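Posting this for the archive.
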Amino acid sequence: MSIASLLPGRLGLGTAPLGNMFRAVPTEEAAATVEAAWDHGIRYFDTAPFYGAGLSEMRLGDALAGRPRDEYVLSTKVGRVVLDEVEDPAARDLGEKGGLFEHGRPNKIVHEWTVEATERSIEDSLKRLGVDRLDIVWVHDIAQDFHGDVWLEKFEEARTGAFRVLSRLRDEGVIKAWGLGVNRTEPIELALALDEPQPDGFLLAGRYTLLDHEHALQRLLPMAAEQGVGMVVGGPYSSGVLAGGTHFEYQDAPPEIIERVRRIKDIAGRYGVSIKAAALQFSLAHPVTAAVVAGATKPSRIAEDLAALSEKVPADFWTDLRKGGLVSPDAPLPTA
C-alpha cells in the first residue's frame, strides 16, 4: 500500500518530544498535547521505542486509549529493544545524538535489527502502546549519524533481519506498510536499489527542510519518484531552530545555521509570512512528500502548525528565497 494512500492527512504528530527529548515533560503536558492534536483533527501519530526508552510509546498509548483504533494511523519503529535493567541515560553512546533522551526512562536500550530483535521490538511496542496492531513500521536509524563507519554493517543486519520480517508481516496483512526512518539519505537510496525486500516509503528526518534539502534532491528523491515510493518528512523545523528554538540536528545550532535562519526570517518578515508556514509548505511541496510530521509538547503548537499549513504565502516570497540562494533551484516550490 502506498504511504500517501494510507495516511489520513498532510500533517502528523511526531512524539519524540513526549519521550522527554531535551527536557523532562510533565505527564499532563504530554497528554494534553496528544489531546489537542486529536481535537484539531490529526489522525497520524508516529513514535519509537528509542524515544525515552519506551516513554513516548507509553504516553501516546495512554493518550489514545479509548479512541476507536480504526480512526487513526499509528507508526512506530524497530532497531531498539528496551530492557528491564537500567543504565545511565546520559552515558549512552548515541553517536552524534548524545544526551538526546537523558531525561527519559533509565531502561537499557539494545541496538539490534535482527529477526529476533525485530519481532520482540514489535511485541513490546504493542504492549507499551496498548493496541493490537500497527499500521506502519519504520526501520530506525541504520545510518552514519548513529554508527559512523560501521553503518553499512547495521544496514546489512537490517536487510537480512528487519526488512524481511516487515515484508512478511506486510504480506500477511499484519502491518500495512514499512520503510526506513532515518536522518540520512544514503540508507534509503541503498534500500530502494534492492530487488527485494522493497520498502513502501520512508520517514526522512531533517533532510528535506528549508535549511537542508540539496542532498536529498540529488539522488534520493528522483529515485523515490521513479519507484512511486512516498516520503514522510520528519523534523520540518530542523530540530526547532526554524520554529524559534536553538537546536539544529539535535544539538546547539552553529553560527552559520543561525545566520541562514536570520536571512530566511528577514525575507519572511517583509512578506508577513510565518516561518512555520514557510517550513511546512516547503517540505510538502515536493511530489514525493506524503505528509510532514512535526513534534510538539505544548498543545498550543498544534494550532500553530495547522494554521501554518493553510497560511497564504506570496509567490514572491519563494522567488526571493531562491534569488538569495536559500532554496535550491531544483526544489519544487509551493506555487509551482
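DSSP finds 14 helices and twelve strands in the chain. The first helix runs from residue 3 to 6.
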